[in-house]
């Protein structure tokens, strides 16, 4: 498909010629040229919504991938390789859609799963850390505390106390 970058100039030239030396039918020709110019200008000025839709769709696909693989030790370049793209572009697309980086999203996803396991199972913190892909339970505890504002043990005790309180009421 030929680029329209030089076409507006050509149309303006035709418009000038037609209006400079009026001949029968010049008004219809000028009107058609003006409509074509307006359409080309609108095309140049309006954003390409299909690109926006494509990047939104890509961000959703990335999130789905992260939700399926959050237990793996993924690096940004691993995720980007899966989508055959530049890591920085992938991060930009994801952040624009979800206001978060893919790696931070994985961390929050893991911490959400940790909270569920802490409240819904009798698993020990070390076991939960292992299930979530952390080889070092202390490191997991540090991450959990930094992310959630309390240690896994504190969180579990607080949630158990809340459940007991709810049952009593």
TrEMBL record:
Gene3D superfamilies per the UniProt record, alphabetical: Homeodomain-like (1.10.10.60)
InterPro entries: Homeodomain-like_sf, HTH_AraC, HTH_AraC-typ_CS, Tscrpt_reg_AraC-type_HTH
Organism superkingdom: Bacteria
Keywords: DNA-binding, Transcription, Transcription regulation
Presence of keyword DNA-binding: yes
Domain HTH araC/xylS-type as annotated: residue spans: 60-158
Pfam families the record matches: HTH_18
SMART domains per UniProt: HTH_ARAC (SM00342)
Name by which UniProt lists this protein: AraC family transcriptional regulator
Species of origin: Paenibacillus lacisoli
């Amino acid at each position: 498909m030929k680029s329209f970058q030089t076409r507006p100039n050509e149309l303006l030239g035709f418009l000038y010629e037609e209006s400079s030396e009026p001949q029968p039918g010049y008004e219809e020709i000028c009107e058609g040229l003006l409509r074509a110019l307006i359409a080309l200008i609108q095309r140049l000025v309006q954003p390409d919504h299909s690109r926006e839709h494509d990047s939104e769709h890509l961000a959703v696909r990335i999130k789905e991938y992260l939700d399926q693989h959050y237990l793996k030790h993924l690096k940004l370049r691993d995720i980007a390789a899966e989508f055959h793209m530049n890591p920085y572009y992938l991060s930009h697309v994801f952040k624009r859609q979800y206001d978060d980086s893919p790696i931070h999203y994985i961390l929050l996803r893991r911490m959400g799963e940790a909270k569920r396991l802490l409240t819904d199972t009798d698993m020990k913190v070390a076991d939960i850390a292992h299930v979530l892909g952390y080889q070092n339970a202390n490191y997991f505890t540090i991450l959990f505390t930094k992310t959630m504002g309390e240690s896994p043990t504190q969180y579990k005790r607080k949630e158990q106390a809340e459940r007991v309180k709810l049952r009593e009421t």
